[in-house]
From TrEMBL:
Lineage: Bacteria, Pseudomonadati, Pseudomonadota, Alphaproteobacteria, Hyphomicrobiales
Molecular function GO terms recorded: 3D-(3,5/4)-trihydroxycyclohexane-1,2-dione hydrolase activity
Record domain Thiamine pyrophosphate enzyme TPP-binding: where: 418-567
UniProt organism field: Labrys monachus
Alphabetical list of InterPro entries matching this protein: DHS-like_NAD/FAD-binding_dom, Myo_inos_IolD, THDP-binding, Thiamin_PyroP_enz_cen_dom, Thiamin_PyroP_enz_TPP-bd_dom, TPP_enz, TPP_enzyme_TPP-bd
Database matches in NCBIfam families: myo_inos_iolD
Listed EC numbers: 3.7.1.22
Membership in a protein family: Belongs to the TPP enzyme family.
Record protein name field: 3D-(3,5/4)-trihydroxycyclohexane-1,2-dione acylhydrolase (Decyclizing)
Length: 613
C-alpha cells in the first residue's frame, strides 16, 4: 500500500484541499478557504500546514473568533450550502468565542467546519495556559462545550483517527437532513505527530448533495389531503432555497393556484411580484399572509421547521387545519401533528406536481390571496412614503435602500427591530438576494456575514442593514473587509439602543428599562459617531440626516471601491403593523396594574393556540 508521511495537521489540510463539489455542473473546491486566528494551540502545527497550502486553500485572518465563524456561515448561506468554509482557533477563549457562531449554524442548519487546538493528550505539561481544568474529569476541557451546538464532534487523540473522522465530518456538513456545524479538537501534541497515511486517503473526491425521494405512501396521503383542500396555502422555508427548488415551487404554486407565504429563512425564494406570492407570515409577517393562514384548511409547509415566529406561537391557523410538512430532515418534518413527507424539496415538489395534474384551487381563494397582497402592497407604499417628521421610520429607510439596490444586491440583517421591518418592507427583486439570520437571532451576524457573502459572490454587493445595538456588539470585520478588499455597503440605523426589546417590554406593561440608552444607568446619553468609528477602520463613511440624503449617499456608496458605512438616526417607536400574536412569559403577579392587564391578555391569547402541538 502506497503511503504519504506527514503530520496529523498536514494530513488534515491535505485532505481538505482534495475535496470538491459540483456547482452548476462545474467542479469547485468544497472548502474554498479558512478563517483563522492563531494562538499557541494551532500556530506551530496547523498554521505550518496552512501556510504551505496557502495558494490552494487561502487563509483569511479574522479580528474575532466569533465574527470570523459568522463570516464562514454567511459564506455558506450565500453559496446555498454548496461550499463550506473552515474556522480555526487556538485553545481556551479563542475556541469558546466560536460557541455562539456554532449555535447560529446549528439553529439555521448551515455547514461550517470548526477546528480548534486542544490540550496535550500526554498531559506532560498540564495544566497548560488557557486550560480550564475539571478536577474530577481531566478529559474535559472547553472544547467539550461545543457538543451542545454541533452536529458532529470529535477529539483526535491519535493521528490515524482522522482517516475515519474527516469523512464523517464532511458527510454531516453535506447531509441535507443533518446539516450543521462540525467540530474537530486537535490536541497540540497529536498535531505534530508524523504518520504514514494511505495515499488513497488524499485522492481527489467529488461530492454531490444527495436528493432523497419521498416515501410513496406518504406522498399519496399528501396528495389526497391537497386534492381535498378548499383553501390550501404553501409556506416556503429556507429548505426551498438550499434545495434549489425556487423554480419548482413557483411553478407548482402558479399551476395549481395555491398562494405562497414565506418564512424568514424562506424569503427570497420567490420574487416579491411572483403571481403566487402573498408575503411573509407570522409574527413578523404581513396582513395578507396572516389573513389567508387564518382561513387555510390545508397547509403545505416546504423546508421549514415551523418555529414560533412563523406560526404566531400556533395562533395563526385554524384548530382543524391540516399540515403536510415536506422536509429533508425527519425531525423537522415530524412536528406539530403534520403529515411528514421526508424528502428533498425540489424532487418532492416535482412528484407532487405530477400527482396534482389537472387540479387547481378554487379561483375565489386564489383571487383572495392576490387581493389581500395588493392591499398589503398599498399599505407598504404608505408606510414608506416620506413625511416631514424629523426622524425617519425603519419602513422609510428600508424603502429608500430597497429602491437603490440593484436587482442582485444581497440584503443582510439579523436581530433587533430590523428583521421584522425588512421582512415586511423589503421587496425582493431577484431570487436568493435576502439573508435575515433569525433562526438564532444573533446580534453581530450582520457585518461578519456580509464579509463572507462578499467572498462567496464578488459579482454583487452585500447591503448590510444593522441597528446601533448590533453594531456595538460586533463591528471589527469592517476592518477585515477593508484589508481583504471585499466591499460592503453598511447602513447603520441608530435608534438609541435596543428599541425592539423596549417595544416588547412596554407592550407587556413594563416601563422602559435598560434597553434604550436614555433608560440605562448612565451619566448622560452620549451618542456614538458611527461614521467616525467606521472611518477609523478604513471605511468610507457618511452620516446622513434625511431620506433624500440617504438616497444620495447610497448612490455615492455604490460607486466607491471599498466598504462604505452610512449612518442615519431612525425612529425607535414606529413599527410596521401586520404582526401575529407571540407567546412570551408575563408575570402572573405584579405591583404594576399594566403588567397584570398584559398577563390577562396573554392568557387570552393562549386560548387561541392549536391544541397538542
Amino acid at each position: 500500500m502506497s503511503t504519504i508521511r506527514c503530520t496529523m495537521a498536514q494530513a488534515v489540510v491535505r485532505y481538505l484541499c482534495n475535496q470538491f463539489t459540483i456547482i452548476d455542473d462545474e467542479r469547485a473546491p468544497l472548502f474554498p478557504g479558512v478563517f483563522a486566528i492563531f494562538g499557541h494551540g494551532n500556530v506551530t502545527c496547523l498554521s505550518e500546514a496552512l501556510e504551505a497550502a496557502r495558494e490552494v486553500l487561502p487563509t483569511w485572518r479574522g479580528q474575532n473568533e466569533q465574527s470570523m465563524a459568522l463570516a464562514a456561515i454567511g459564506f455558506a448561506k450565500a453559496r446555498r450550502r454548496r461550499q463550506i468554509m473552515v474556522a480555526a482557533t487556538s485553545i481556551g477563549p479563542g475556541a469558546l468565542n466560536m460557541i455562539t457562531a456554532a449555535g447560529v449554524a446549528h439553529a439555521n442548519r448551515l455547514p461550517i467546519l470548526m477546528i480548534s487546538g486542544d490540550t496535550f493528550i500526554n498531559r506532560r505539561p498540564d495544566p497548560v495556559m488557557q486550560q480550564v481544568e475539571h478536577f474530577g474529569d481531566p478529559t474535559v476541557n472547553v472544547n467539550d462545550a461545543f457538543k451542545a451546538v454541533t452536529r458532529y464532534w470529535d477529539r483526535i487523540v491519535h493521528p490515524e483517527q482522522i482517516i475515519s473522522s474527516l469523512p464523517q465530518a464532511v458527510a454531516t456538513l453535506l447531509d441535507p437532513a443533518d446539516c450543521g456545524p462540525a467540530f474537530l479538537a486537535l490536541p497540540q501534541d497529536v498535531q505534530e505527530i508524523a504518520w504514514d497515511y494511505p495515499a488513497a486517503f488524499f485522492e481527489e473526491t467529488v461530492h454531490a448533495i444527495p436528493r432523497p425521494r419521498p416515501d410513496r405512501d406518504r406522498l399519496a396521503q399528501a396528495l389526497a389531503l391537497l386534492r381535498a383542500a378548499k383553501r390550501p396555502l404553501i409556506i416556503s422555508g429556507g429548505g426551498v432555497r438550499y434545495s434549489g427548488a425556487e423554480d419548482a415551487l413557483g411553478a407548482f404554486a402558479a399551476d395549481h393556484g395555491i398562494p405562497v407565504a414565506e418564512t424568514i429563512a424562506g424569503k427570497g425564494a420567490l420574487t416579491h411580484d411572483h403571481p403566487a406570492h402573498i408575503g411573509p407570515i407570522g409574527i413578523v409577517g404581513s396582513t395578507s399572509a396572516n389573513a389567508l393562514a387564518a382561513e387555510a384548511d390545508v397547509i403545505l409547509a416546504v423546508g421549514t421547521r415551523l418555529m414560533d415566529f412563523t406560526t404566531g406561537s400556533w395562533t395563526c391557523f385554524r384548530q382543524d387545519a391540516k399540515f403536510v410538512s415536506v422536509n429533508a430532515a425527519r425531525h423537522d418534518a415530524t412536528k406539530h401533528r403534520a403529515l411528514a413527507v421526508v424528502g428533498d424539496a425540489r424532487e418532492t415538489l416535482a412528484e407532487l406536481d405530477a400527482g396534482m395534474a389537472g387540479w387547481r384551487a378554487d379561483a375565489a381563494w386564489t383571487q383572495k390571496g392576490r387581493l389581500e397582497f395588493a392591499r398589503w402592497n398599498a399599505m407598504l407604499d404608505g408606510f414608506q412614503k416620506p413625511t416631514n417628521d424629523p426622524v425617519p421610520t425603519y419602513a422609510q429607510v428600508i424603502g429608500v435602500v430597497n429602491a437603490k439596490a440593484d436587482d442582485r444586491d444581497l440584503l443582510i440583517t439579523a436581530a433587533g427591530g430590523l428583521p421584522g421591518e425588512v421582512m415586511k418592507n423589503w421587496r425582493v427583486k431577484a431570487p436568493h438576494t435576502f439573508d435575515c439570520e433569525f433562526g438564532f437571532s444573533c446580534m453581530g451576524y450582520e457585518i461578519a456575514a456580509g464579509w463572507g457573502a462578499a467572498m462567496a459572490d464578488p459579482s454583487r454587493t452585500p447591503i448590510v442593514m444593522v441597528g446601533d445595538g448590533s453594531y456595538m456588539m460586533m463591528n471589527s470585520d469592517i476592518y477585515s473587509t477593508v484589508l481583504s478588499g471585499h466591499k460592503l455597503i453598511v447602513v447603520v440605523c441608530d435608534n438609541g439602543g435596543y428599541a425592539v426589546i423596549n417595544r416588547l417590554q412596554n407592550a407587556k406593561g413594563i416601563a422602559s428599562f435598560n434597553n434604550l440608552i436614555r433608560d440605562c444607568r448612565v451619566k448622560e446619553p452620549f451618542p456614538v459617531d458611527f461614521a467616525g468609528h467606521a472611518q477609523a477602520m478604513g471605511a468610507l463613511t457618511r452620516k446622513v440626516e434625511s431620506l433624500a440624503d440617504l438616497g444620495q449617499a447610497l448612490d455615492w456608496a455604490k460607486g466607491n471601491d471599498r466598504t462604505t458605512v452610512i449612518s442615519i438616526v431612525s425612529d425607535a417607536f414606529t413599527w410596521t403593523p401586520g404582526d401575529a400574536w407571540w407567546d412570551v412569559g408575563v408575570p402572573e403577579t405584579s405591583a404594576n396594574p399594566r403588567v397584570l392587564e398584559a398577563a390577562g391578555a396573554q392568557q387570552q391569547g393562549r386560548r387561541k393556540q392549536r391544541v397538542g402541538v
